[in-house]
Amino acid sequence: MGTSFVETMPSLAIAIFIMLVTWIVARFGVKISDAIVGRTEIRSSLKNLIDTIVKLAIWLTGLFIAAVVVIPTLTPASLLAGLGIGAVAIGFAFQDIFENFLAGVLIMVREKMRIGDIIECEGITGKVEHITLRETHVRKLSGELSVVPNSILFKNPVEILTDVDQRRHEVVVGVSYDTNLDHAADVIRRAVEGIDDVLASKGVDIFAQEFNSSSVDFLVRWWAGSTPRSGWESKDKVVRKVKAALDEAGIEIPFPYVTHTFKETVPVSQLGDTGKRAP
């Protein structure tokens, strides 16, 4: 065994040298890939995928050459056969890891859901900060960082709130039953269209929606910024402006009333034997 080890030392030294060269080539390969891809308009997540593929291809080639130097009888056919048997066992053992890996590749390739988008999936709402081959980092609106496996984002519906610059927002406004609905709708429309954050050019919808318990409800819809903060700010301005406009027009926004009814009670001493009140 000692003699065999000494005899293989030159091959091991050459294999180690090949690994060192592979490391250097992989670094330069990634830089060359960045220089070529950097001239295009490919999104950053896809650039990371290309860098990973280039690095992986160089390392696999270097490892194969080093293995052939150490084991001269090794051939591509025997290597593929061994990898095929090992891949089955590894596939069962690391099923979730490979699932997330493939989901990460597909997420990076598709055009939607870029870094910086605000998404909502499986109860998680936040900003996409980083996409790797196994997981995606989503910063919640409250500041916490959620590390989401890519398989969850790939297999479940994902709402991309910032896919476009504007989206529709809505609020319900109730008016009293004695109100002229056409007049109330006109007052609400003029109030909403006068707000700077509202895109009046895309239209403001006022729909009489429901006969509620104490009011007739209007569904008010408008277009504003697509981020959650833009939606909250525009809704705040709409509610304030509509309330002031309805008050100025003398239109009541009803709220539940409570009516107390008192019955006259008769003392027991005033009741006769029959249970009726004595004359």
Automatic annotation (TrEMBL):
Can the keyword Magnesium be found in this entry's annotation?
A: no
Name this protein carries in UniProt = Small-conductance mechanosensitive channel
Q: Name the SUPFAM superfamilies for this protein.
A: Mechanosensitive channel protein MscS (YggB), C-terminal domain, Mechanosensitive channel protein MscS (YggB), transmembrane region, Sm-like ribonucleoproteins
Topology of this chain in the membrane = Multi-pass membrane protein
How is this protein organized at the quaternary level?
Homoheptamer.
Just give the chief location class: membrane
Localisation: Cell inner membrane; Cell membrane
Q: Which domain of life is it from?
A: Bacteria
UniProt domain Mechanosensitive ion channel MscS: residue ranges? 96-158
Which function does this protein serve? Mechanosensitive channel that participates in the regulation of osmotic pressure changes within the cell, opening in response to stretch forces in the membrane lipid bilayer, without the need for other proteins. Contributes to normal resistance to hypoosmotic shock. Forms an ion channel of 1.0 nanosiemens conductance with a slight preference for anions.
Q: Which Pfam families match?
A: MS_channel_2nd, MS_channel_3rd
Q: Does Cytoplasm appear among the keywords?
A: no
> TM spans, by residue?
12-32, 53-74, 80-109
Q: Domain Mechanosensitive ion channel MscS C-terminal, which positions? A: 170-253
Q: Which UniProt keywords apply?
A: Cell inner membrane, Cell membrane, Ion channel, Ion transport, Membrane, Transmembrane, Transmembrane helix, Transport
Q: Which family does it belong to?
A: Belongs to the MscS (TC 1.A.23) family.
